[in-house]
């Protein structure tokens, strides 16, 4: 079935909830990987569409607006879709509505879960098994396309699901534009670090919400004990909850609280969360946004199950008490007591914030042309030559308290020039020789628009979570424009070294914080900055 739609037009019916929409991004990425030439359109409600802005795997976003509600509206929408001549509809949404729209649009191939009595409208109805319902929800959507013959690695254990799945592509991810990142950073620029985001709401119901007065107590401790800034998030419907928190703090802490509940659109919310050093939240859409941005999370769970809807990846903390009736999966507490939330104390959450808050400064290092001579797709150990003086220079950074992290694009793997095994072995050799703490690499082709190839910050986000790195207090040394661009994206200082062979040398220098002749010069500059 997968080959039948390789070069055709695919309609994806997206989901209606913000958190669920974030969790569908790995599925969309997997579809694009499987069908690079297909025209992929996404039909979604307007309130979730910003999740997918700038997503390179989608050719077109079609808004399911209110004018398409009702029988007449659905017929109008079906006519519009029919004129686009889709070959295949993939229904990520479970509702009967999604199937009837696809059927009315006369899309020949209609694939979705057999739910809501809609099986007869589908050409391939995927059964909902007990096994898939026990897995994290991100795998629920991936399972749908795996049933089409697309590799999605759904067979992960419950334990493996909670580990960071990059670079396999299963991690939710939101693509950001540089200009919107800079706009959010400018808004928060004059506030002290660390910046802790607090999201006290949860759309599903009160059973998912920790108490406002405890969020207020948490904010007070963050300000007093961490010398931090608190940003309170929420939608229009959650302004009252946010106000309850602010009103308890405003007398003494007004300058340390930024009230953003009800003041942002979804895209602004995303970019502001991206600038937080840590994020405290109930089980909610913003929790999944933070997870997709690689922001360290403290997630508070009561009535829901973190194994199913918790944040994916290392470096997060889930706070949940073993109460007999939890998870009940109810919107409102059936006992009227909310024991599962009441048992979670301010101290529990504050301790977790201290635990996840990135504190380490690091120097992130490109490989070819920075640490070693650029051999143009190195594939032979005899050509691996570490730059003279590199070991001594990096040792000085270690002495100054920096973690050393290698981050390298290795598209030679995707091009078939270099074996992935050789990249792993050579990275391991360099890591040992230079006493580097960790090495991350992207194996993808530039045309794949993956989440981990610099200047996308996916690998840096992973390093932040796994090694507690404060990226804004860190440095990136590289010989390519992509190194300088990713430094700018994450708020680090970029040092351009003139030891590479990249044709983008002039452009790299234009966006660098400093230009050095070599690695030793870069290290000298960093150490001078640290003394200021």
Structure description:
By secondary structure, the chain is an alpha/beta fold. Helix content is 38%, strand content 15%. It contains 22 helices and 18 strands. It has helices at 18-23, 25-34, 70-83, 96-104, 130-133, 137-146, 158-161, 178-188, 212-226, 239-253, 266-274, 285-292, 306-309, 339-342, 346-356, 390-399, 412-415, 420-434, 458-467, 481-490, 505-511, 519-531; strands spanning 9-13, 39-44, 60-63, 88-91, 109-113, 124-126, 195-199, 229-232, 257-259, 278-282, 297-300, 317-319, 362-365, 403-409, 438-442, 475-478, 493-497, 514-516. It has a six-stranded parallel β-sheet, covered by helices on one side. It has a six-stranded parallel β-sheet with strand order 9-8-7-10-11-12, sandwiched between helices. Strands 15-14-13-16-17-18 form a six-stranded parallel β-sheet, with helices on both faces. Strand 8, helix 10 and strand 9 form a beta-alpha-beta unit. The N and C termini lie far apart (62 Å).
Provide key terms for this protein:
single chain, 532 residues, alpha/beta, 6-stranded parallel beta sheet, 22 helices, 18 strands
